[in-house]
Design brief:
The complex is a heterodimer.
Chain A lengths: L9 H13 L5 H21 L5 H10 L7 H25 L3 H20 L4 H29 L8 H6 L1 H6 L3 H13 L9 H35 L6
Helix pairs in contact in A: 1-2, 2-3, 4-10, 5-6, 5-10, 6-9, 6-10, 9-10
Chain B lengths: L1 H13 L2 H11 L3 E2 H11 L8 H13 L3 E8 L2 E8 L1 H23 L7
Antiparallel strand pairs in B: 1-3, 2-3
Helix pairs in contact in B: 2-5
Classes of the chains: A mainly alpha, B alpha+beta.
C-alpha cells in the first residue's frame, strides 16, 4: 500500500534525518534513501493505525529493518561503491590503451630516450633534463589533488561516495615516492647523476609515464564521481 | 510454532530475493525501495515480506555491480532514489530467472513418487 498523500511535515522529515544520524548513518546520500523509506512506511502505518504517535510509528517501521538495523546497509553500500569505483578505474584505464593514445605514449617515451642520446657527453644538460622530467611529473602528481580540491566544491554534509573514493589518492602517492627520491637525490649527490646507466633512465622514464597516466585516470574518475554526487545530492552542497 | 513456520518460509524465500527484485524491475520502468517491498507483499498476498535490512544491501550490491542504475528525483518535500535495470541487468535477470526455474524443477524431483 502506498501512502495516499505525503503527509509528513518538514519538521517530521528533519526528525527522520536526526533518527538516521542517531542510528549511525552519518552519510547524507544514504540518509536520503532511508528517510524516504521511513517516511513512506510511517505515513502508511499512521493511516492504518491513527492512534499511533509519529515517533511510535517510526520506531515500529525501524523494527522492520531487523536486528542489525541500518548497520548492514552501510557495510553493503561501502562494498558496492568500492566495487563500482574499481570498475570505473578499470574502464578508464583501458580507455587509455587506444591506438592514438598508445602512439602518444610511445612518442613520449621516444622523446625521453632521444633526450638521453642527444645529451650524451653533455653531463650537466643530461642531468638537468632528467631533473626537469621527474620534476614535471612530480609537480603534476602533487598539483592534481590541489586542483581537485579547488575545482570541485566540497559538500557540507558527508557523502559515502566521496569517502569511499578517498583512499585512491593515497594509493597513487606511491608513484610520487621514486620521483621525489630522484629529485632530492639530485641535489644531495649531483655527481652520481652525471653518468646514469641506461636501465636507470628507462626505469625513471617508465615510472614517470605510469605515474602521470594513473593520475590522469584518477582525475577522470574523480570528476565522474564528484559530478554525479553534485547532480544527485545538490542539497548536500547548499 | 506458527512464527517458526513463518521464519522457515522466509528463509526459503531468502535465496530467491535477487531474481524476484530483478523480475520486478524488469516489468517496471523504474522502482524505489519502498515500492518494491509493497509490490512483493501485494503480489504474494503477504506470504513474502522483504525486510528492508535485506533489500537495500541487495539493491546497493546490484547497483555497484552495474546491474542497476539509480537516479534521484524530488517527490513532494523529499528526495527519492529510483532504480532501473541496465542492459547488463536485463541479461542478469534472464540468467537469474532461468537458474531459479532450474532450481524449482530440481526441487520438484523430490515431490514425485519413487519409481520402483
Amino acid at each position: 500500500m502506498h501512502p495516499e498523500k505525503q503527509s509528513l511535515t518538514e519538521t517530521e522529515l528533519d526528525y527522520l534525518y536526526q533518527f538516521c544520524r542517531k542510528h549511525y548513518i552519518r552519510y547524507y546520500d544514504v540518509q536520503v534513501e532511508l528517510v524516504d523509506h521511513l517516511a513512506n512506511a510511517t505515513e502508511v502505518l499512521m493511516q492504518e493505525r491513527p492512534e499511533l504517535s509519529f515517533t511510535a510509528a517510526v520506531d515500529t517501521v525501524y523494527a522492520g529493518f531487523g536486528k542489525t538495523g541500518f548497520r548492514k546497509i552501510i557495510a553493503a553500500k561501502e562494498e558496492a561503491l568500492e566495487q563500482q569505483h574499481k570498475s570505473f578505474y578499470n574502464q578508464t584505464f583501458r580507455s587509455y590503451f587506444t591506438l592514438p593514445r598508445i602512439l602518444m605514449m610511445l612518442c613520449a617515451f621516444a622523446l625521453i630516450w632521444g633526450l638521453h642520446r642527444f645529451t650524451e657527453g653533455h653531463t650537466i644538460l643530461r642531468a638537468s633534463a632528467l631533473l626537469a622530467l621527474a620534476g614535471a611529473a612530480l609537480l603534476y602528481e602533487i598539483g592534481l589533488p590541489i586542483y581537485l580540491h579547488y575545482a570541485y566544491k566540497r559538500p557540507k554534509q558527508e557523502l559515502i561516495s566521496r569517502q569511499v573514493h578517498r583512499p585512491y589518492y593515497y594509493y597513487l602517492t606511491i608513484f610520487c615516492y621514486p620521483e621525489l627520491k630522484f629529485v632530492l637525490n639530485y641535489f644531495w649527490d649531483y655527481e652520481r647523476y652525471l653518468y646514469l646507466a641506461d636501465h636507470y633512465l628507462i626505469l625513471i622514464g617508465l615510472f614517470c609515464m605510469l605515474g602521470v597516466l594513473l593520475q590522469l585516470v584518477h582525475l577522470e574518475v574523480s570528476k565522474r564521481i564528484y559530478r554525479k554526487a553534485y547532480e544527485d545530492y545538490p542539497l548536500a552542497y547548499a | 510454532m506458527i512464527s517458526n513456520r513463518r521464519m522457515n518460509k522466509q528463509s526459503l524465500y531468502k535465496g530467491c530475493l535477487e531474481p524476484i527484485v530483478l523480475q520486478l524491475l524488469g516489468s517496471h520502468d523504474r522502482m524505489y525501495g519502498y515500492e518494491i517491498t509493497v509490490k512483493v507483499k501485494e503480489l504474494t498476498k503477504g506470504a513474502l515480506q522483504i525486510t528492508e535490512g535485506a533489500l537495500y544491501p541487495l539493491l546497493h550490491r546490484l547497483e555497484g555491480a552495474g546491474v542497476l542504475t539509480a537516479e534521484m528525483e524530488h517527490v513532494g518535500n523529499r528526495m527519492r532514489k529510483y532504480y532501473r535495470l541496465t542492459p547488463q541487468g536485463q541479461q542478469t535477470r534472464t540468467t537469474a530467472l532461468s537458474e531459479l526455474n532450474d532450481f524449482i524443477a530440481t526441487l520438484q524431483l523430490f515431490n514425485k513418487p519413487a519409481i520402483s
